[in-house]
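Box 4.2: Ligand-aware structure prediction
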Amino acid sequence: MKHGSILVTGGAGYIGSHVALQLRARGERVLILDDLSRGFRQAALDTPLIVGAVADRERVRGVLHEHGVDTVMHFAAHTIVPESVREPLKYYRNNTCATGALLECCLEAQVRHFVFSSSAAVYGVPAEGFAAESTPTAPINPYGTSKLMSEWMLADVARAASLRYVALRYFNVAGSDTGGRIGQATPNATLLIKVACEAALGKRAHVAIFGTDYPTPDGTGVRDYIHVEDLAAAHVDALSYLRGGGACITLNVGYGHGYSVRQVLESVERVSGKRLAVREEPRRAGDPGALVARADRIRAELLWRPRLDDLDGIVRSALAWEERLLRDPW
Ligand code: UFG
């Protein structure tokens, strides 16, 4: 059966651009819709880029019809937790309401498959630090709530129409394309591995450890860090699953084990050969102590097999990307 095109919203952003690249490498017809508010034109590489907003119904309708889109992968979103706390309505408008508008257009255009970027932030602070898909959702910030509301809309829409979806709840994404073409280019980054790599290269004076009194083995926060290429591969697997007739499903994407902030900083020192200037600071508001995926279900359902589950390897690719950005800023 001949497949339609795939629309990747937010495909000029960090994760969407890696997914677009893998889809193209498989010979898929891909187009990117991105308003470039946070994305970068360069990240689209040679994938056709339409500059526009997901919430612009006229535009999206036109794109879906003109390009014969049968699958939408929806990445476009704001993703900064502290910003969501300061400006909640921006997150509900840009993440939740925009997803609603996109879904309306998808139904009109009879899009068959939808892959949604959700987040481990929907779990809030799970007991024992592990979250399975069955763990109760209890987001503790507007970012997490905006994603959970989108999941709910998607589930209701799928019950009422023929669209089928995979919602992927990402844990802590890091690293970059092993070909060195794309990576995370967000200015004023807050994510630990990027911050620490910037510090190793002298772009920052120091790295802060936010909290050393968590009930974790070394007192610092524990997360499930996953290489962006393994995460991207989960989307390709989700597409195969949906094309194979798979039922609507929500899945964690993580490796199932965690590292502490101190372990991450040690890895950055090991890989870079630099000593980091580290400052111990109080806990950051809204941070759970530990958040690690129970990640068996995605392996069983999508047959996803991670290839890059190695902290030093993740850090090496993140560092290589930061070095490239130093030479050639985006
Ligand atoms: N941390 C530091 N110093 C820093 C940055 C982070 O100690 O400079 C710590 C945090 O306190 C936390 C860990 O490193 O313990 C990871 O923090 P990140 O900011 O890298 O990532 P988060 O876990 O806060 O958040 C990420 C994404 C969110 C997503 C969430 C889901 O940014 O979009 O994972 O768990 F919702």
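In the box above, the bound molecule is UFG. The CA atoms of residues 155 and 187 lie 34 Å apart.
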